[in-house]
Structure formats: structure tokens, C-alpha cells
Amino acid sequence: MFLLSYRLKPRRVIVHQEPFFQFYTRMRNHLFSFSKRRLPLYHRRFFNSSIPDHLYDPPFTLSQKPRKPKGKKNKNIQNGAPNIKRDPNLPFKSDLPFEFRFSYSETDPSIRPISFRESPKFSPFGPGRLDRKWTGTCAPVQHEVDRKRFEEERNRVLGAPLNEEEVAELVERYRHCDCARQINLGKEGVTHNMLDDIHNHWKKAEAVRIKCLGVPTLDMDNVCFHLEDKSGGKIIYRNINILLLYRGRNYDPKNRPVIPLMLWKPYPPIYPRLVKNVIYGLTYEETKEMRNKGLNSHPLMKLSRNGVYVNVVERVREAFKTEEVVRLDCTHVGTSDCKRMGVKLRDLVPCVPILFKDEQIILWRGNFNQEQSSDSQW
Fold it and tell me: What is the largest CA-CA distance in the chain?
């Protein structure tokens, strides 16, 4: 037998040139890449505790941006409101020739209040923000204003009157209900801050659409007058409770009038009582009988909340030709709105409100054929 001898070749030894701790760290990360869930719990604990913390390289890098410390914001609090920067142009100086009121169409300057619910020294424009003094109901002009110069400036801004084609184009553009340039006029009527909203719309639009609802719709002529008088524009379209207010041909948004804003709604003052126990011209028994007659009568109209009341005055005038007492059903309208409507109907019809009960308005046509002073009548 011949013996076969095999020559074993020497195995090749790989010598790692990298340091031991880098090699060990790389191998450890390679083992962890499979999944930790596949390893038993004691193996995972072994890997976490066997390598020192200074040799472990996490698989993600931390953010190098230093975080800002969360400190308290510096706020200069004045009168409960934070003011970061104070406007150097304060107090505001406005050249508008009328006194500033919260509502222009729903207040009568001739009627003086008997008391105030808050001190007149608290101006709704804020302390030191207006060069006019707040009297409790308005901020009158401190110096004499040239009304003639103001009218000339207004006519210059309006320019030449629009022809029929231009009016039709503007009406077709802004009269629709989906118009973006719309202002809603509610029970407060033409307010002071609404004037600033109108001028803001006039920056990018030639006209603004105004939708009127609620008590002001009883006297739309009064609303139109104050809109034109206070804003300087012109109403080119009127349909029931929809108005289009045109800014004028020569309107420049950069030279708009200065209109300081009211920061809060002032408390309404206390006025004399609207309905007295005994109506002037009637005895106590006649007054009581008239009120019972009105409560038991059929309602002339049923009014809804925030509705359109443009035809209420004419309906009441027609009813007074045959009836002595008229009842208006104002269920769900609200007590405050009922009294506001009673005041407007008293002056527009004219008539005498004799009762406000359970959101029902009882009106008496009165003895207006006799010569009576307005103070004694009301």
C-alpha cells in the first residue's frame, strides 16, 4: 500500500489595523442591527452593560444648535392689555367735523341721559389715545371745523357723477350675496368702527355692499344719511335692505381720514322712562282699559329676530286709520329690541307706546290733533 501524504497549506491570518475599541463597537452595532426582539432579555442586558458609555456610539447624532432658555416674555401691561410697543403718533388727531359716538343712527343727540352706568372719564378709545374728551356719550370736536371746506373736499373725492352704464356695472359686480366686499349692519346701526371697515374695503374695491338687518331697517333713510355723511361716499344702489356705498372717482387710500378705533363698547347711559304709569291725556282707568284692549286684540304683525322691518311703519299708519290701539307680536325678538322699536315707531308714525309686556308692543295713536308740546306728550 502506498501512503498518500497531504500537504496542508498555511491558513491566511487577517490582521486588523483599526484599534480594538473601534472594531468592537462596529461589531456590537452590527449585532444590534438584526433586531433586539430576537435576543433574549439577559443578552440585551449583557450588551447594554458590557460596553462602557464612553465607547458607545449611538446610531443618531444629537442636534448641535443650543436651545434658547424658556423665560417669561417681557410685556408692558397697561390697563389690563399687553402693549409691546407704544405708537409714537399717539394721541390721534382727527379732522373729521362730527362728534364720535358708538352708534350714529341709533342715538339722538338731543336726548340727554339722566345718569351713567360708568364714569365718563373712562374713554372707549383708551387713555391718552385721542385728543378729544369723552363726555359719557360722545367725543365732541374740540375746535371749530369749517364745514364748507369739508364739503368741497368730499365733492372733489366723489368727482363727476356716474353714468348709467358705470352704475349698472358696479351694481352687477357687488350686489350679489356672495360678494366678498360686504359689511353686515345689525341692531347697533352705523357704528364708529364700521367707518374704518368701510375704508379698509375701499382700498381694493370701488364699492362696498352693506346688508342691514334688525331695528335700523325701520328707518332706512336715516341709515343712508349717516353712511354718506360719516364715510364721505355715495349710495348708488338701494334695494329693500341692501345698499351699495361708492367711494368716489378720486379716492386715494393713502390719504384716507384718520379714524381712531374704539377698544370696547361703552355702557349705554340711563335715559328717562319710556312708558309711564299714566299716559298723558288719559286717566288711570282709561290707561288700564287701553292696555287691556291692546293685549286682547289681534296682532297686526308678527316680527322675527334680526328681521327686515322696512314696511312696519306704513302698516302701523294704515292700521291707525281704523284702530285706536295696535299690538305687535315680537316673540323671541328680545326686550331691548322691543324698546328700540317702540322709540323709533313713536317718532316715525307718530304714536304713543303704552305697554311693553311679554315681548308685545302696544301702541296708541294718541291725540296728535291737539296742540301739545313734545315734552308733555312723551
Answer: 159
